[in-house]
Design a protein that fits this description.
There is one protein chain. By secondary structure, the protein is of the alpha+beta class. Strands 1-2-7-5-6 form a five-stranded mixed beta sheet, covered by helices on one side. Strands 3-4 form a two-stranded antiparallel sheet.
Length: 164
């Protein structure tokens, strides 16, 4: 995914996503006892989002073995889009987001792999490009794990602040 250098402030968030060839998908139905996104006060917390496209994973496996950093970085961006879809379903419009507060990325990787932050940059860079620096700057964690659901290489969760 190639990012553009300038952030035009006159475009709506979903228009910015379309500039990158991305549309918000339908929110994936939970496969367990949880909800995709939860509102608490003026924050929305998403559950971990997998890089599902049309209900399927395009890439499976561990980063550092069968999945490259670039592939996983692109999958992290898809996770971020899926999280934005869950947020929109919870609050009605992405235009209500006033701050991307935190991104947490889990990267299924081999024991010797140490580039988890490079993978999670896929989500962080997309959010920064779409929302701009004033809203898109966020705190972040990038964690290596042994395995993720459905053998996904990456899972992302996002916390945002929004205006009611």
């Amino acid at each position: 995914m190639t990012m553009t250098p300038a952030y035009p402030t006159d475009l709506r968030i979903e228009d910015r996503l379309r500039e990158f060839g991305l549309d918000l998908p339908q929110v994936a139905a939970p496969v367990g006892a949880y909800v995709p996104a939860l509102i608490s006060g003026d924050h929305v917390y998403t559950s971990g989002q997998l890089p599902l496209t049309n209900g399927k994973l395009a890439v499976t496996g561990k980063v550092g073995a069968t999945v490259t950093v670039d592939e996983a970085k692109n999958q992290a961006a898809i996770c971020a889009v899926n999280a934005l879809a869950a947020i929109k379903a919870a609050i009605g419009s992405l235009e209500q987001i006033t701050q991307i507060v935190k991104v947490v990325g889990f990267v299924a990787s081999t024991p010797e792999f140490t580039q988890q932050p490079a993978v999670v940059n896929g989500a962080s860079e997309l959010l920064g490009e779409v929302f701009g620096p004033a809203i898109g700057a966020h705190a972040r964690s990038a964690v290596g794990v042994a395995a993720l659901p459905l053998d996904a290489p990456v899972e992302i969760e996002i916390t945002v602040r929004f205006r009611k």
